[in-house]
Amino acid sequence: MAINNLPAKLTIATIGMFGFGFALVPLYDVFCDITGINGKGFERAPGTSNQSGAIEASISETQRAINVQFIASPQSGFSGNFYPASTTLPASLNRSVSTAYFARNASDKMIHLQAIPSISPSEASSYVTKMECFCFNQQSLSPGQTREMGLTFKISEDLPEHISTITFSYSLYPIESMSNEETHVRIDSTDQTGGLSNEPST
Amino acid sequence: MNETTSISTKEVDTPTTEHHAHPTGISRWLYTTNHKDIGSLYLIFSFVMLFIGGGMAFMIRAELFQPGLQFIEPEFFNQMTTMHGLIMVFGVVMPAFVGLANWMVPLMIGAPDMALPRMNNWSFWIMPFAFSILLSTLFMEGGGPNFGWTFYAPLSTTYAPPSTTFFIFGVHLMGLSSIMGAINIITTILNMRAPGMTLMKMPMFVWTWLITAFLLIAVMPVLAGAVTMMLMDIHFGTSFFNAAGGGDPVLFQHIFWFFGHPEVYIMILPAFGVVSQIIPAFARKPLFGYKSMVYATASIAILSFIVWAHHMFTVGLPAVAELFFMYSTMLIAIPTGVKVFNWVSTMFRGSMTFEAPMLFSVAFVVLFTIGGLSGLMLSIAPADFQYHDTYFVVAHFHYVLVPGAIFGIMAAVYYWMPKWSGFMYNEPLAKLHFWLSFIGLNLTFFPMHFLGLAGMPRRIPDYALQFADFNMITSVGAFLFGTTQLLFLYIVIQCARGKGEPAPQRPWEGAEGLEWSIPSPAPLHTFDTPPKVD
Ligand code: HEM
Ligand SMILES: [Cu+2]
Description:
The complex is a heterodimer of chains A (202) and B (534).
Chain A: H1 6-35, E1 43-44, E2 65-74, E3 80-84, E4 88-92, E5 96-105, E6 111-120, E7 128-133, E8 139-141, E9 146-155, E10 165-175
Parallel strand pairs in A: 1-7, 2-10
Antiparallel strand pairs in A: 2-4, 3-5, 5-9, 6-8, 6-10, 7-9
Chain B: E1 7-8, H1 25-31, H2 35-64, H3 74-109, H4 117-136, H5 164-191, H6 204-235, H7 249-283, H8 290-303, H9 319-347, H10 356-378, H11 381-387, H12 391-421, H13 427-453, H14 468-496, E2 532-533
Antiparallel strand pairs in B: 1-2
Helix pairs in contact in B: 2-3, 2-4, 2-14, 3-5, 3-7, 3-12, 4-5, 5-6, 6-7, 6-8, 7-9, 7-10, 7-12, 8-9, 9-10, 10-12, 10-13, 12-13, 13-14
């Protein structure tokens, strides 16, 4: 009878909860995706390239001007400079805007960098589409090299009325000689939503 | 309910009736599958850990006695706060309650032993290994864990000392032990009750442990998952919590607190059960609102799964989430209030006497409520932006854990010790123990409220001068509370060695329940033929 294998059932429940702990990782992503919180909700437009675009912002006259601010935060372990081409730009809705960030390697070694984006207010993140972003890829800089890294995005006209300023913040992390395959960046994998983007690499 | 339960037990075995040959000496304890022996082992283990964890608290308070750095290095200070928390939570409170469950659950439901006696032996003997590993990290290159008992990533991954791998292994082992203990307790309670003991006739202590055991099975595996992810991040190049690789450190906090909040209820529900046994006994009245007690305990347990982010109000949650977790947290105060109301109503117009178990239980009700109220203050999200990571939080959780969980354990020890040892403990000394502890703990933890409100951050080895006076009071209180526990040790040893009045079968006039139907000391084997409960 059922009652005899109670310990077995409880063991299965234990294993199930262990699995649930891991399931929380993709669930958390899905949740952020659906709700657009945590600044992770933006999508990458399909079929876009990663080549550097024009630095200048291409703006036409607007019905509603959004003030876009750019923040760069180099993280510890990175010796060099990291800064936006411009700290603020006006942007009109539904028009693509291109700008850039610069990174300079001040060390005498080859370094690999990964930028992690965040958008605030987080509510705005689901209305931002990035066609091109240096955060989609790892950046490798040889000693002394300065790189201009492109960023092209569009803000949807559905952006709620009360938002007039959007801040793009990028944290730049040095990463230790991970190969490109090994670093799955979550933004890179929004198309496979729900997939565990950081499984152990082989 | 048990107070209306009449008991017809057949002649109970006398202590001399041995069923098997029993090994003596060390191998008796190594190989034992007897629930009473294992219960004692757990309690002794917990007592030893209390003094180790207490010694660490002593160092913390010595360093904080005055502003400035005097005795220990900040790096070592961090290891002390971390280890103190880990040991008190996993090494003292949890094993003590498992020990009480081992001793008392079979006696209270009329079962001859636990359902899975061999697993019971395993779940105890894993513990000394787990804690030896944990403590040994202090002597390793780079020191022991220094990232707080909540081990937030990336402090515990990217920036962690090399010994963290051993810490993770230790956490795995003690998680395994808790889960095995929980499976055993659930199986015992659901399968081995004496005929006639329906679920709604079970003593409250058994009920609270049943619910606690389910909580353990639900959340200990999640903790195991969290430390496994840390291990993979550290050694196998994954990036669960590493932003540079696309992971998210905030995810760690969600997973940790999904375990962590139910964990705080794991530490308090059995104490609720203990005082629900003791207050009726010394008020000589049945427990007021038995059914509502059961339902309140179950609702607290269920609610505890949806409030975890009240520990994370300041990580940048969206406003809806702040509101959700704020209201759900406040909701928990309702079943908690029901419990407090029931305890007070049980005492109301009772013919009360104040022996040591009752003193600890009454203090439990009063002081735990203070802790609940500061919890309510912390649950107000906008207010928590001010209180978070200050000594106010430290005051809150020490008020619910010291006069809550620890007083619950001490009350239980005094209440059931005569049954375990066959001798009465020294009542005047026990009362002295109570009053010194009571004064000591309030001196220690009450000023922490003021420190926190004034802005003193937690987990720092030095502080601004304006905090000096209250810190000194706190340290004095801590030294008093700590040394008083040596008196507790003395009382327990004296009682265990038989220095005291022989205890009658039922030493407490108003006590009800099957455990009082067997002789004192409880013979090694009890209820071989199940008692009949009507
Ligand atoms: C009415 C019931 C309670 C409420 C509303 C409540 C609320 C809270 C809140 C909001 C915090 C987070 C404070 C912060 O970090 O800023 C907190 C922390 C804490 N609570 Fe409670 N609590 C309650 C009962 C309890 C109980 C019964 C226990 C344990 C027996 C407990 C143990 C803790 C612990 C250990 C922490 C601190 C964890 C840490 O950061 O190290 N609480 N509580
Ligand atoms: Cu909590």
